[in-house]
Amino acid sequence: MSATHRPALVVVGNGMAGMRTVEELLALAPGMYDITVFGAEPHVNYNRIMLSPVLAGDKTQDDIVLHPRAWYAEHGITLHTGDPVVAIDRRRRIVCSQSGVEVAYDRLLLATGSQPFIVPVPGADLPGVVGFRDLDDVDTMLQAARDGRHAVVIGGGLLGLEAANGLLRRGMDVTVVHLTGSLLNQQLDGDASLLLKGALERRGLRILLGVQTEAILGDGKVASVRLSDGVTLPADLVVMAAGVRPNVALARAAGLHVERAIVVDDTLQSYDPRVYAVGECVQHRRATFGLVAPIWEQARVCAAHLAGFGHRRYVQQAVATKLKVTGIDLYSAGDIVGGPGTQDLVLRDRRSGMYKRLVLDGNRLTGAVLYGDVADGPWYFDLIGRGVDISALRDRLLFGPALCDAQAA
Questions:
Q1: pTM greater than the 0.70 cutoff
Q2: Segment 181-197, tens digit of pLDDT
Q3: What protein family is recorded (predicted)?
Q4: In which order are the strands placed within the sheet that holds 320-325?
């Protein structure tokens, strides 16, 4: 290969996962590829995790930009924003964008992310019904907060609660509608969820649990939400925050192997050896991903293989979830459900609002839920990850490392 001809890398997706992979690649092998990036949004790469502070007014859109246009130019990256790839011709190794741009590739990286799950009810397509996934959604929500009074958020997970908090701070009356009987049911046990519910209600949120959305009503624009128990809620805005689905339509149309998401091996390579995938659009050993830590590791491994350093393998690891919902600290790690033979250790201080539950399986700590005071979370996570025998610490374990023998680990 001549010095003037470099292989072409095309990245489909200008979000956090794709650009983190490009960052890692540039650190390992600067100048190895001619890189072209296609993004569906008109914006440069920004920190999607920080959409909630933008909605709440704590950050501006400029504050959350990760890579300004100058960064792409500095690294010789051709960037197409607001122009999603609509077709991949794997035989000819060409991608085609919505505007008709065609680019050939030697390696293709798919980082198409996920899209909000829109609850399939009548009226879900009415103006005023939005997801909470990008800056355009935030703009729609801010406009609704200026023009309207009532908001309904469907979904009591982290994203839904953050949306509800932001809209509340923007002056709206907000009701959260959640299908199950407890908030953050993926991360918290029932007791911690109840504490969270009480704290959020004291701040002004209305929370309805164990109810289903039956229909969204309105004439040309959303006006109300009817629930399965017959209650009708006024709504100038409805936010769908009932989960996400991997965005795999493009990969499926290209004939790649797709199950719940794009199936990849330990190198983040798809069944086509020229096509890699990272982030929320990926399925690795039957698992899909939504947290930053595993996606950053995927980016590191994928970049190594794109750079020709083929020794790295992606290995799934237990992750801890540290959540900050409207200023309330929560920490969850490991198996918080437990099962036959497991034992719970519980500490609750009603006066301070602190709650701690540890799940033990024999002499091993297997799960932890912390509410209010989460300082010891990483220490518990380390015990879980290393499978430490905690039999000598059992009677002091709830009180954290300060009262436990540091040498016992």
A1: yes
A2: 999 988 889 999 999 99
A3: Belongs to the FAD-dependent oxidoreductase family.
A4: 320-325, 328-334, 364-371, 354-361, 342-349
